[in-house]
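Recall from the previous chapter that SMILES is a line notation for molecules. Here it describes magnesium ion.
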Amino acid sequence: MTNKARARRVRMVLTDVDGTLTDGTLAVLPDGEEIKSYHVKDGLAVLLAQLAGLKLGIITGKRSRGLEHRAARLKIDELVQGAADKMPPFRDILARHGLRPEEVAYIGDDIGDLAVMRAAGFSAAVADAHPVVRRSANYVCKARGGRGAYRELIDYILTAQGKWDLVTAEFKTIFNRAL
Ligand SMILES: [Mg+2]
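With both inputs in hand, we obtain:
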């Protein structure tokens, strides 16, 4: 099956955080709180995906209060933190939304993502993912983690689904109304 055909079936996009939505660096404050940086291009991807009617979720092994804020602000449907094994939350999320694995895309960067990538119908790796992860992905992004890789995956799915023109037109309407 081609990647385009896989992307056409997608109704929900799940992502890892560190190394995927971020470049993998962590700034650690004296109190132990970790600061991460997210890319504005990926934030816009969330909005475009939502305009297209896609559901979105995050599964991460770590915990971060900053991520809770960002996920809430972006109205992400599912946020699971502290998942040492990502498969149980993956199954839970699918059950909650009544989705089959082939209707889900997943993007990651490291070996903790491999099981979910194999289970999901459409898997993607960021450009600087671990070589094993890149080899196992259906789609390897040109963009690196935290540098628009998530955006690249969303763009690919929206284009494959023929929703790109509709969504960008809708986006312009919303943007103009907000001015
Ligand atoms: Mg990661």
